[in-house]
Amino acid sequence: MGRTGFEDARVLITGITGFVGPYLAKSLLDEGAKVYGLARRLSDGNLSRGLSDVGIEKEVKVLEGSLENLTSLLFALDKSEPEFIFHLAAQSFVERSFLDPLETFQTNATGTINLLEAIRIKDKLNSRLVFSGTSEEYGLVLYSEAQLKRLEESGRIVFPPPLKIPEVPIKESNPLRPISPYAVTKVLGENITLNYVRSYGLNGLVTRSFNHEGARRGGMFVTSVIAKQVMRLKYRESNSILLGNVNTFRDWSHIDDIVEGYKLASLKGTAGDVYNLGSERTNSVLTYLLWTLEEAGFHVRNLETLTGNKRIDDPAVSFDVNKFGVKMRISKVDQMLLDGQIEFDIKDKGIRLDLGGQTITVEFDPSRFRPADVPLLLCDATKAKEKLGFKPTHSIRDIIKDQLNYYAVPDRRR
């Protein structure tokens, strides 16, 4: 690229009013970039939702348009004349993709092809394009022989078959086994992007970012669902919590770390290459809830299923372990889940938590269980560290604190 930074660089961000877009835009503006953003006008006429939350609504040049409208993309390229394009726009809520697969394919797959065609038509193939992929593309990742045996006994076919077990930490070379319409569209978008690199000389690359969280995360995503409900408990607006599957493990990164990863990829990445961006740790949804309660000032003494057949004392206690060859901090409940000593399902109906002087109920909502769910994600970011200089610095507790601070505002808890 010949650039070492973004001073005076012209940048176009699709999906600039989503979760990541405003944070990326602010970081680029702080480095002196001229930032343009593609945004769809909302029903209330708003074009800058999210940008005002980080105080940059007057600094970003927002261009009205959508991925489904090729003409608006051509117009956006004319206006922005970008050196860098960050393609973030997507329908990214996994549960919604199951409910409306056609919408998800239209936005994520057809929309990406429209953007690539607009770039080709306008002869912007030299602009550096970062396609924002996702860890969801890896889908069904095998972490133990026992897990594979359970899948085979249930009649599930694992394809491509594993070359080794465990398949974690997840490298860029791991097989892709997407299990949601959202993940499938991202695999398609990634592959068509790489095809344009090979076929037309597009200066593009792919990042596969693992779950990234922070203040302003969409209210339907599980970390925000947890933080919001915990703050309602804190302010005595509720005495219970509603969740879906609490067994799944995710590699949760702070949004600021992922933004830095996107920027490093755009400056130092190789065209046609793929880079994982993640924290290199994994924790369960249940642990995220327990640690969020702790950060809100509660002490979790024990948990017990509503059916009374499963109990754990001091479930939130944390310690460092070497798991899957990676040193990370997990909770007692994480260890029991990973070792197959316990599992929670709809038949348990929920969990009762003793908070010391207060007991709350975590109800399992059947409507929040997906038709298929990725069991565990754990990033191997070695390639991004060595090739790009990527270095995550935030802990999972940093994420939780930011989200709790965000939901301390009463209007956001409604």
Q: What keywords describe this structure?
A:
414 residues, alpha/beta, Rossmann fold, UDP-galactose 4-epimerase, domain 1, 2 domains, 7-stranded parallel β-sheet, 5-stranded mixed β-sheet, 12 helices, 18 strands, globular
Explained architecture:
This protein has 414 residues and is of the alpha/beta class. The protein folds into two domains: 164 residues, Rossmann fold; 170 residues, Alpha-Beta Complex (UDP-galactose 4-epimerase, domain 1). Helices cover 34% and strands 19% of the residues. It is built from twelve helices and 18 strands. Strands 3-2-1-4-5-6-11 form a seven-stranded parallel beta sheet, sandwiched between helices. A five-stranded mixed beta sheet has the order 8-18-17-13-14. The protein is globular, with a radius of gyration of 22 Å. It starts with 9 loop residues before the first strand and ends in an 8-residue tail after the last helix. The model has no long low-confidence stretch (mean pLDDT 95).
